Amino acid sequence: MAVVLGPNRYGKAETRVVRVTRDGDVHHVKDCNVSIALSGAMTDVHLTGDNAAVLPTDSQKNTVYAMARRHGIGEIEDFALLLARHFTGSQPAIHHARVEIEEYSWNRIPDGPPHSFVRAGGEVRTCVAHHDRDGTASVVSGLKDLVVLNSTGSEFHGFAQDEYTTLKPATDRVLATAVTAAWRHTAVPPRGGPGEPYAESYAVSYAEVRRHLLEAFARTHSLSLQQTLYTMGRQVLEARPEICEIRLALPNKHHFAVDLSPFGLDNDNEVFYAADRPYGLIEGHVLDDDAPDAGRAWE
Amino acid sequence: MAVVLGPNRYGKAETRVVRVTRDGDVHHVKDCNVSIALSGAMTDVHLTGDNAAVLPTDSQKNTVYAMARRHGIGEIEDFALLLARHFTGSQPAIHHARVEIEEYSWNRIPDGPPHSFVRAGGEVRTCVAHHDRDGTASVVSGLKDLVVLNSTGSEFHGFAQDEYTTLKPATDRVLATAVTAAWRHTAVPPRGGPGEPYAESYAVSYAEVRRHLLEAFARTHSLSLQQTLYTMGRQVLEARPEICEIRLALPNKHHFAVDLSPFGLDNDNEVFYAADRPYGLIEGHVLDDDAPDAGRAWE
Amino acid sequence: MAVVLGPNRYGKAETRVVRVTRDGDVHHVKDCNVSIALSGAMTDVHLTGDNAAVLPTDSQKNTVYAMARRHGIGEIEDFALLLARHFTGSQPAIHHARVEIEEYSWNRIPDGPPHSFVRAGGEVRTCVAHHDRDGTASVVSGLKDLVVLNSTGSEFHGFAQDEYTTLKPATDRVLATAVTAAWRHTAVPPRGGPGEPYAESYAVSYAEVRRHLLEAFARTHSLSLQQTLYTMGRQVLEARPEICEIRLALPNKHHFAVDLSPFGLDNDNEVFYAADRPYGLIEGHVLDDDAPDAGRAWE
Amino acid sequence: MAVVLGPNRYGKAETRVVRVTRDGDVHHVKDCNVSIALSGAMTDVHLTGDNAAVLPTDSQKNTVYAMARRHGIGEIEDFALLLARHFTGSQPAIHHARVEIEEYSWNRIPDGPPHSFVRAGGEVRTCVAHHDRDGTASVVSGLKDLVVLNSTGSEFHGFAQDEYTTLKPATDRVLATAVTAAWRHTAVPPRGGPGEPYAESYAVSYAEVRRHLLEAFARTHSLSLQQTLYTMGRQVLEARPEICEIRLALPNKHHFAVDLSPFGLDNDNEVFYAADRPYGLIEGHVLDDDAPDAGRAWE
């Protein structure tokens, strides 16, 4: 036996950057949280504390701000790739960079001046970009905290039963979840599928994937949350040629119809207790069977 | 010296209730968090553990669900009053009820069936209703987590200075805050001001106050966050005759322009670091000098 | 009707300060979160944006650090008073200062060098000090997040019943709560009760109050959480002459014995579901009937 | 191209169970949060909503409670394995089970009766157990939220520099982190290393690993947090033959010495600003080069 160092990475996490761009009096705001993780020739720093290969995380933070100044922050995928390429291209000891960005969206205040904004709430847009010094790159886009609910159109019955099963079959229930989803782009820069160029931006791709997720959730008459998950994933893959894989995590946010019979009242799915814990958690991947190797895209 | 019992109250906090109402295939959802606090002849339970006067908090929870079934949940202020009246009217030992409700809003999923919803995010609507067994009542409506930002139109200079002051005057800065606001209705049921009837619902009142808060924040050229706070409050009071007092708490969510000069870059208010802590906190009340006595409305 | 400015205050919230003191190789750590709220001649800044009376919150932050350097941070009550006196004594426009401090405690790492620490977890120590420019002062000490549980020795029966009551009486239940408590010192500097000097520090007072709260919770055979609350408060007041009032907020963190009868198993209070929401919330004040007027101590 | 279902799992997450065991008047408390994830023949439920293979997550919750009643909750690793074996052994469609448990620790209240407890705070103990229906099993133990600080004995200099580097070298700084660690047991049931039986319980193993982590953090004169990480991992592996791999995630919780020179004060590492974000994040694996294949242990 010998003790050895395994995979490792380091970087500055959660650098909060807000970028204002002016178009005359009209301002635009990008509000992001950037997390960088670098890896490479880092054995010495672990074994002896020799920092010669270590670009300080403070420098990484400065780079985020400087790059935001130089290039603006367009789509977060592009900005993540820009940063990842910068580190692998400029630091010999850095062989691989992972950049994760969360974006918080803002709306204009109605009838306000064009520099006034109200935070949109709702889901957070996300991305993870990887870049090797040999030029290999990947982009996973995503979202989290997209909370949705169908007040009918959901059933759950015909399930396996064991000695600990007391659940009654349901032919009409509330189905609610907070969608966390991440989808892998087939190519970087994005392409429209095997052999096809793809000219749209990550912004269009994001908006369309989000729309398909919502639509599939809403339109699926659900026999189980697993079925809904798969339908959501399949619809995205079928509609969006630039995407080859999607991963979904759907907590089943239980809404229990309250038993009001002790009070002489019926409850035909009108009054629900929204429970915090425990919750079901359904996770699944849906992918194109021709999808290229993912490499480190999901790390 | 003698040890005595002072003010006290008890109740069920954070009962999560979701109420679905059906209009044919079109469903409506109300999603609330209800907290009840009752007080009255509670000396014995504290001194001897005699529970004869204590309506269990479990019964209070049941009441929330039963009332939601019987009456629906319309505007949260109305539902809070309904509950508060119920407890003071039905339990001799309960002399006073306080009901606080948070409401989370949902939007319909675009192009989805009329039973599919996506949580709106953004601010939470709130209310606190008080009711005595003699019929005295009060209603305070409010909101929290309304996050707003002006990317220009804010200054801060001419301030007091002491030996610990290093802040530079600013003639152009980002002003951002998360609005917590609560406003007291002059009368229950609401009236339009001294001597005037008021026919609108709490829903209209809420939407209008929110609109005025946003508009005043956006349109005020700010010399300090205190000035913005007062302007927001004043605009609400001047525009809404049913409101006699508003209380605002505005954290100054600092956005610091990053010094990029070490990198040979200027930064003309384009790149900001959004700080978590510490933050300024500005709190103030704005009221009508004719406002009736608040009683326990703010407790 | 005229719109007027009501009570207001402003200041820097949540300045995180860690103070290291060295006694040779032996280091001591104080880890605090300081929130300052100042009030006084602040009409102009609200009405016109004239900041002449406004000491920037940035200067307040600097003062926290400079004072921590000059004087160290001893007991948080003393440090809070030091800061509050500084602001009311040095700024003519500041008539009143409120300083709130949270303290996070650290233990030494066993067998480690005397500069190595592990955060203690558990409760947070708190205080709120007020100081007027005329010299009036008050100190409220406290704690929060002190989570306690009795696995027997708790009953709840003989309660009021109404049409919505389904709760069964309990002669043996788990009683669990997260104690939030705040207690007012009779005098500043602290005294031992009417006419008596008090020589102990806030540290001793805190440790003793905490001990009494735990002991009273543990030793009370409880017929209701209200009774436990009152007993906790009374024991503190009877044992600690420097305290004239205590306020307690006790969430009843429900532990429901799980019904295992469908599986042919009894459950004699052995297996519990620890629920998140809803929860009972019991709040009460216990005080000395000779307590001096509280002034603004509880604001 | 064809859309296919990839890896998937489902189960009940965050079942909160508190188990009381009585030894006469002396009570013992185990307080856990159990998350189950099952996988197997789940294609049909995803593609068609046929639930025949799906044991409801509600039944899984019931199983947690029933097993806690039948067998008690001893060490969380044993309880996790018990549950995982149950599901793979009793449900033909379940080919693999993953059970994750968090444990919150409680201390007895000093001088209280033997049924009175105060929650310990500090770190949370964790474990993840995997079990296949063919009998393959793995156990990863761990902890999170173990917050530690060295007020001296840490340096950082000799690092790489680029055009965005402004950080000054440090020969004395505060080093603070919140340890998240997970370590893989070489065998299930645990053994003492290659060829050696191991008779100790998971409780002893946990206590010793925790002790070594603290000791290594405290005693390492640190030239970088990477060096500290590796030393922590190596010490655990060298001291504990039952462990073959450890993974550590260490946020560098920056404590910046405040510049007090504008106030005529020096600051010889006495007064620090404890920052929230951004923070460095150092992650690394340390392992025995003879470690058996991890299989799905880390999923």
Describe this structure in words.
4 copies of one chain form a homotetramer. With 299 residues, chain A is an alpha+beta fold. Chain A has 2 domains: 121 residues, Urate Oxidase, CATH 3.10.270.10; 144 residues, Urate Oxidase (Roll), CATH 3.10.270.10. Helices cover 23% and strands 38% of the residues of chain A. Chain A is built from 5 helices and 13 strands. In chain A, the strands form 3 sheets. In chain A, strands 2-3-4-7-8-9-10-13 form an 8-stranded antiparallel sheet. A two-stranded antiparallel ribbon of chain A has the order 5-6. In chain A, strand 5 and strand 6 form a beta hairpin. In chain A, helix 4 packs antiparallel against helix 5. The two termini of chain A are 28 Å apart. Chains in contact: A-B, A-C, A-D, B-C, B-D, C-D. The interface between A and B is large, with 62 and 62 residues.
Give a brief outline of the structure.
Chain A has 299 residues and is an alpha+beta fold. Chain A contains five helices and 13 strands. Chains A and C meet through loops of A and loops of C.
